[in-house]
Every structure is written in C-alpha cells, then in structure tokens.
Automatic annotation (TrEMBL), chain A:
UniProt protein name: FMN-dependent oxidoreductase, nitrilotriacetate monooxygenase family
Transmembrane segments: none
InterPro entries per UniProt: Diverse_substr_monoxygenases, Luciferase-like_dom, Luciferase-like_sf, NTA_MOA
Similarity remark: Belongs to the NtaA/SnaA/DszA monooxygenase family.
Residues annotated as domain Luciferase-like: 24-395
Organism name: Actinacidiphila glaucinigra
Automatic annotation (TrEMBL), chain B:
GO molecular function, one term: monooxygenase activity
Name of the protein: Flavin-dependent oxidoreductase, luciferase family (Includes alkanesulfonate monooxygenase SsuD and methylene tetrahydromethanopterin reductase)
Record key words, sorted: Flavoprotein, FMN, Monooxygenase, Oxidoreductase
Coiled coil: none
Organism: Actinacidiphila glaucinigra
Residues engaged in binding FMN: 76, 120, 259
Pfam families, A to Z: Bac_luciferase
Gene3D superfamilies linked: Luciferase-like domain
Family: Belongs to the NtaA/SnaA/DszA monooxygenase family.
Annotated Luciferase-like domain residues: 52-335
Highest taxon, organism lineage: Bacteria
Amino acid sequence: MSKPRKQIHLAAHFPGVNNTTVWSDPRAGSHIEFGSFAHFARTAERAKFDFLFLAEGLRLREQGGRIHDLDVVGRPDTFTVLAALAAVTERIGLTGTINSTFNEPYEVARQFASLDHLSGGRSAWNVVTSWDAFTGENFRRGGFLPQEERYSRAREFLATAGGLFDSWHGDEILADRATGAFLRDARAGSFVHKGHHFDIHGQFNVPRGPQGRPVVFQAGDSEEGREFAAADADAIFSRHSTFEAGRAFYRDVKGRLSKYGRGQDELLILPAATFVLGDSDAEAAELAREVRRQQVSGATAIKHLEFVWNRDLSAYDPDGPLPDVDPDPGEHTVARGRAQVRMYRDPLATAREWRELAAANGWSIRDLVIETGNRQSFVGSPSTVAAGIDDFVQADAADGFILVPHVTPGGLDVFADTVVPLLQERGVFRADYEGTTLRDHLGLAHPDARTPAERAAS
Amino acid sequence: MSSDLSSPYPSAYSSAGSPPAHAPLHLAVALDGAGWHPAAWREPAARPRELLTARYWQDVVTEAERGLLDFVTIEDSLGPQSSHPIEPDGRTDQVRGRLDAVLVAARVAPLTRHIGLVPTVVATHTEPFHVSKAIATLDYVSTGRAGLRVQVSARPNEAAHFGRRAIPPFGLGDLDTPAVRELVAGLFDEAADHVEVVRRLWDSWEDDAEIRDVATGRFIDRDKLHYIDFEGRYFSVKGPSITPRPPQGQPVVSALAHSGVPYRLVARAADVGYVTPHDGDQARAIVTGIRAAQEAAGRERETLHVFGDLVVLLDDDAGAARARLGRLDGLAGTPYTSDAKVFAGTPAGLADLLLEWRRAGLTGFRLRPAVIGHDLPAITRGLVPELQRRGAFREAYEARTLRGLLGLARPANRYTATSATATA
C-alpha cells in the first residue's frame, strides 16, 4: 500500500530588502506602511496559509563604504508589526525573525509570550545569529561575540528563553474574588539560569501563553545550524529549493532527529521558494525571464560581481565583458551586512568559471549575473505549479514552502486565487483551518503534551 | 500633509508664560491591569481573568477613545509588579503578570482611529536601537498616534533578569545616601541619552529619502540617510535606523517626574511630563521648577506639556465614591497611598479641581482610574461631558495625530536642517 499523501504547509514571506523584490514594478506598493502588511497577511489568511514570515536585519547594508541603495531599504520592527497584524487576522501564524546576538532572553521571551497572548497562540520565532562588529555598532555591547560562538550563544539563548516560557505553568492565576487570592503561588515565574553566555535569575513576568512556547524556526545551513535545528527547532527555513538538493537536505536533517529522541514529524523542512504564474507554461516562462531582468539591473549586476571580486567595479559597463582583473583574495571589505559574500568561498575559481561561461555564451556582465543567479522555484500555469509543489512535498524534498513573491503587497494574490484551489482539489492542502493556534496548523504538539521526563530531558 | 497634521490650537505652553485661559484641557488615562487600587481586580466591574487578552485591552482603549481622550499610557516593567518600591513583595493578593506594553499598544492600534497610544519603555535595560524602531513602527501601524513613556529601573531584581550590570541591594532608608543618589542620577542620565538616541534614529531618514528612481535603479537617495554617531558615557550607536522616519516625525516622548533629577529629564527630553502635586500651590511650584529647567535646557521656545497625575474614584454621589474607596481599602487590608493625589468624588467635583489646577500652570491631566471597569467609563461618560459643558474639553477629535491633538507641530528633521545650513 502506498503511504498516505502528505499535507502541504504553506507560508508567505513579506518581500524584503533583497534584489528579488521588484520595487520598480508599477504595481509595487509601500514596504513600510501598515496597509501593505495588512493586505499581504489577509491574502495569506484567505488562502489558509500556515503562517506569515518576516525577516530582519539590524543594520542597513553597505557596499563600498556607502549604504546600498539599489534594493528596497527599510523595514518595520518585527514584534510591533506582528502584534498589529494579530488585530487584522484571526488564524494565520505570525513568525518573526529575532536575533539572538543583539537581544537579551528576558526581553525577547516577554515579547514572544506577549505576542502569543495577543494573537491567541499564533506566534513563532525564527532564531538567527550574527556576530559582526558592523551590526554591533548599533548596540550597547558592539561586536562582542566571536564568530565561532554565535551558535553556542543562540542555543543557550533559546534554552534560557525556554526556561522563562516554562517558568509559568498556566494554572497560577486564580483571580478568586471571594478569597482575595489572585495568584496561587508568589513564586510563579521563578527562574535561575547560569551558563557561559547568560547568568540570570529572578521572576519572569508574563504568564504562560496559549502555545506554551512559540514555535521555533532555525534558518542557518551550516553543520552547526543543522544540529541546532535537529535538537531544538520545530521547523527549518531552508534555502534548498531545488529537488535533488532538497531531498538530500531533508534526509540529512530528518536523519539527525532520532538521536535527540524526536520523531520525523516534529521538525518541518520548509524551504524558501519563489514562483511566477502565467496562463500557460510558455507565458509564465517568458514572464519569469522578464522578472529576472527586472531583479538584476545593470547597476545591481555590477554590485553582485563585487561580492566575488571584492573590489570597486563601478567603472565597468554592465553590458560589456567581465573584468580582466582578478578578484582581491584578501578579507572581504566591499559588501557589509549581507550573507551573499560568504557563498563564494573561492573567489578566484568563481571568477575563472564565470569568465569561461561568459565567453562560451557571449554573455555580458548583466547576462552572466542573471543566468547564474537563482531561477524561480516554480514557473508555469497554476496547474503546473500546483503539481510541482505537490510532487516536491510527496517526494520528501520538503514539507512545504515559504513563498516569497517579487511584488509587494499584491504578489501573493494570484497564487491564492489560482494555485491554492488546485492544491485543495488534490486533497493536499486544507480547505479551512482546523485549529486556532500555529501549532495546530503545523501539526506540532503543545509542549505540555510531552511527558515530564521528555520535558526534563529537553 | 501638514494641513492634516496641524491643530487648530496655538502651541502656547512654552516656558515664556502660562497657558492662556482658553487653552484646551488635555486628558489622558493611565492603564495598568484592573486599575490602580491594589484591590481593583476584586470589584464587580473588573475582568481579572482577562487582563492578558487582546479583547480586554481593545475594550478599554475603545472606551477611552469614546471619551475623546488625548491618549492612554500603558504601564510596564521588566519584573513582577510589586507594592514595594525596590524589591519584589511576594504577595499573591494583587494582580501579578502583565504583557509587553508596546505590543499591547500595537495590538489595539488598527482597531482605534484617533486616540494616542503611549506605552511605557524601560530605558535602563533596553537597546535604544530596538526601542526607536518599535515606537516608529507603532507610529506606522497607528498612522501617527504613537508615543512613549520612558522609565528607569533601579530595582536590583530587575537588573538580575538581564545579568549585564549589578545594582547593589539597597533599602528605603538608603534613598538619601550618596551611593543611591549617584545610582539614580546615573540612571536618569542614561535615560536622557537613551531618548536622545531614540530621537536621532527617528530623524536618521529624511522624509523624502525613498525615491524609487527607476532610471538610475536607486530605491533611496542615500544622502538623505544619516549616521547618528552617538557616543555617550553609557553606549554608542551608529545608525541609521532600519525603519524610515515615522509619520509624526518625532513620536511623543513623556516621563513621570517626582523631583529635581527627573524634572531635568522632562525638561531636556520630553514633550509631556507627568507630575504629582497634592494641591494647587504644589502644582504651581512644580510647574515653575520645570519651566526653569526647560529654559536651562535651551528649550524655552518648544512646547512642553506638564500634566498632573491623579488617582480617581468617581461616582454620582461623593459619599458613594468615598465609601467605595473605603471598601477597596478594606479588601486590600491597608489604606491606599499613592505618589499622586487620590481623588474620590463626583465628576463635577473633579472638573472643579482640574480647572483650579490648570490655573497653576498645568496643561493637562493624566488620570489613573482606581478601578478601570468603573472609573474609566466614569471619566468618559461623566467627567468628559461635564468638562464639555464648561467649554473646557474638545467636542470631537480635531487632529489625526497625537502631536496634532497636543498642539505639537510636526518637527523639522534635525539632519535636514543641518544640511540646509551647510549649503546656505
């Protein structure tokens, strides 16, 4: 007998400060006004998505010592906009990316527990780390953390916050008018944590939220990041959106769960994915090519090349050939506050490979950047895209996707209107929400459902 | 845009003189749990099991908006509530546990339209970078109705929640020792720096920085984004903010002040100060002190509101209000005391008092309802109509932003002004 068809999980990532967001599209709206966030969240909820996802970066990106001005710049505070979105939605999960380096556990735990109360159990935390002094310049302690300690701090941060969430059990508030007892026990919320990164004690002041703890996401891809996710996360926001890479990643990470005593369905793999829809596959393919050209202007192509070359290439013509000068192999100094520079670990080899590709195909700098850049994950008619997503999930290359449209805020509307009904017809996506909390949507147990021994071990 | 934001009232509350007799009275309400009396949660009108729900806060703020109030403040702390000023009190007979005030304000913002939302922010253990973008975002989600009430924490137990600095234990008897005075003065200096960074970050984007110039491919004009390069004794912050300048430009900054050190914080950094006189003469003396500090800070031309704080119990019959206070005190086990004057009486009696204190130079009042479920509706449905009958309070909201309601103009950006001077 074949195994039952998996149910797909879908989420919507508000388009952000990367060049994938096409702000030059005439339909593109504000990236900061609340109306855009409300539109996006309501579309995702209308489509019965599991959750909305917000990224965060704590310093504006720079290139060549100046603020990068070619992509969307600026975003709201994550917690604040999610709390406001809780007022204009009823069921959809609210996932915020919150940094474990430039925050403190007591404050972050208060904010997530508060968001969980204010949203009726819909909060989730995408834990990210940073270490760089560049970002640290915006904070009290500056760049205090060595790079190799960022995951150890993140794990301890998460464990410490977990202790705070668990310091209330949910039955402390009596509010008994007759006896005058508001609290069952004056020690409610007591905690002690002594560790390498945090040495704190006292009383947490937000009683337990509906989900007990927020759902936890992990987004890193390193060996340490995978282990962190297998041990502590409920879901992974992964970058592996191609079929083979996705299956390999899925096998790898799910294979790590058993040593932590966790089942296969206790950690969801949700890659980021992009899409372009058309009436026909051919029309969608043509549109996808146009979008890629919009995403990579000539100026953007030069900036992208600088990630590899580690030099100022502003004198080069984006419609001309690749630079004949070699990359500067020293410490990367051109681009700051962005992750892409770390993707090119051997810049000399990358430059050699790109020159060969450009020569063989007659590509300009801009052509090269467009052609070697990421293709959209799903391109086609609604039925092609629905089938593609379903196949991907049934083949265990993912448990679902975090979709990033390229236009704000309406880029999700067409997906909601055309693809979601087809997934529902296939019986692989919910026709309506069955529960009220994000844990319900994701099929994750409430933390209190685990046995005391399991809780003690975690 | 400026016509939408402007207020019909002259901005008249500079240190140059007292407000004119016709100046409108400003009214705010301070929200904390079930109310300010420790036994408030036991009253029939209280909803003690709902204090952590969005519905409760939505209902309460909606009621305040029904009364055309200027704004609500929302209390907060980085530790459990305590009846003791320095330590946890270990009590189980009062409301304990609360939600983050900024998030409560954000949660009710899309469901209200006019009323200002002013959450408490503790400067002592928080990052000014995070606070600045949080309040800027509250201003976006409320379309121009955000403020903050800045507070310091000298509590050793709250410092231990962060583990980043030790505040040595001290007792009530030590408050006048040099060590504690130095500690408190340092916390207020740090708070002033905190507010300075928050304000600079709000200005770190000029209003027209986003250009979306398709021809050149530039989303922003980066010459209109500014490093704030703040370097102080307590922290350094580079900037710019990750959040563009909020709709009001500068959301409203407020602080509660009881003595000289915090008066200076109000004079240097705030748009609204809350003070706690117990009679008209005290009110006059406090206002004089704050206006002098305002002048010393070089802000004599700026509008700075001084609001009197009062705990209120309102009933149609003054005897009933006093009896209610007695009943609440009986439930609590001790007579209620407060830093602010406790008023138990009729809405008309309170209106008399407010108008008398206004003559002492106060420009508004922040009322602390003893029992929110009872005394907030008494303010909105009793006191407000009474003040309206006397021509002392608005008949309708006259501005779309909190600054507008308070008669504060939308301020020029400090960085725009600098570059204009440089090119002149």
